[in-house]
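User: My instructor asked us to take a sequence, write out its structure as tokens, and then describe one feature of it. I'm not sure where to start. Here is the sequence I was given:
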Amino acid sequence: MSKVRYRLFALNFLACLINYGDRTALSVAAPFILAEYHFSPAVWGLILSAFFWTYSPFALLGGFMVDRIGVRRAYTACMLAWSLTIPLTAGAWNAATFIAVRMLFGMGEGPQAPISAKLTADWFPRRQTSTMLNLAQAGTTVGPIIATPFVVWICATLGWRPAFLMLSSLGVLWCAVWWFTARDRPADHPGVDAAEHAYITADHTPATDRSRPTGRTSHAEFWNLVRQRHVIALAIAFFAYSWVLFMFLTWYPQYLVDARGMDKSDLAGTATIPWVAATAGLVLGGFTADRLIKKSANLITPRKWMIVVSLVMVAACFGPSPAVRSPTVGLLLVCVAIFFLFASYHYQALIIATVPPEYTGRLAGVVQMCSTLAGILAPIVTGAIVETTGSYTSAFILGAALALAGAVALATLVRPPAPASGSPETTTRGKADHAVSVPRPHH
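Assistant: Let's start with the prediction itself. The structure tokens for your sequence are:
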């Protein structure tokens, strides 16, 4: 059997790695930039948030785009866009120009997550989507592990501007390799043999109507799916996940300097440690979810409760971490919180499991857009809290409260119905998918 799917997985992993390596650069460089420009916490919060002003809507647009033009062209377009805009950061000279550059950067990175979800949905069996999505998503944690010491070293030796110029070339090189390696679906790739194609598609749900051209799907059915209880619950829980993630991503290095008295040159080591915990959480969370799915023959319930339990653990560890006097214990609590935060990353896998395949990209985009609204709000609110109170404690407590609210929403709103024998849900989606019904409107 051919193994072409693993080549595309490797490139997806590298794309996620480059994505978060580029994305964390501004936060890691923050102490050096603030030493030059002396932005207030509230203004810096606006600058950090600006990335998400465009990232959020472009996550939704990216979902529609990948369903229409396929993963090969969509991934190439978004990677080129963000790789060619990140060097513009080096030319920013005041708050307005930093905001403008970050908005351009967010437009490029926004489509990446729904494209990754669509790629995984089309190129891997449904029973493996948690493992493969989480392994690919591990690139988003390995990226900061590599980028943090690199950016700190460049900032300390050459200045913060060269760091942004050097990050661009990786994405451009990736695009060249991707274009000659990837195809939209296994059936389109000349290297995929019959055995691999059969292995990938054995548990896939057929599209509603394969005679319709790509992108020609029912608007009524799409909006019906958006209103489904489990999609709303996923959007709420993913928002909570993203609040904690983006607060940590944008403010944690500066928190270590301000609240823990850390020297800027020491960030290369300490600020990297939670990302190691995040990587472990992603990998173990994906394998655990798919192992439970294999035992239970249910694609929904194991992933649901993995998210619920993980978000509760995030709340229990993240909130108290700044109140602990010992910096070591505080760092340990953050690492445990970040481990469970990333272990909960089954949101897109649940979308893949519960919606028809021709809607995977756009529904993934909807949930991703809802989650990235947290990216808009978390940096601004955190900056306002720090400027008003002179402390980070309330910001950490707020993140913990939202994580708990996300867990409650998912636990209460996703309640497995029991479809009648022979119903459309049972016959078209298969027994393993019975946990959530997805009614279709009549056409």
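For the description part of your assignment, you could build on this observation: The first helix runs from residue 4 to 37. Try explaining in your own words what that tells you about the chain.
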